[in-house]
Predict the structure of Acyl-[acyl-carrier-protein] desaturase.
Amino acid sequence: MRHETAYTKIVEKLFEIDPEATVLALADMMRKKITMPAHLMYDGRDDNLFDHFSSVAQRLGVYTAKDYADILEFLVGRWKVEDITGLSSEGRKAQDCLGLPQELGGWLRGQKTRYFL
């Protein structure tokens, strides 16, 4: 939980200092997808251990696409990304891109079935 607080506050400060660069960097990171450190898991036998772990976690509902969208929606809201003004056209495109998790989260919440990453 401490790392979440640290990352959240660091990005908040970056938005204060340079909103244009921060919104561009954040959108770029989201386009490239975040890789969890656990993707390096290896038990000496299964080269696809993380993929198998991830599949089980998703089927059990431990961590699903809805959870991912909820986290992104929370962070984008916390950082008030949609309220940033004075961005270049490229910055506004990045800002729009960062609004997609909110749309995805709303769509997933309206579904009756589970959707997985």
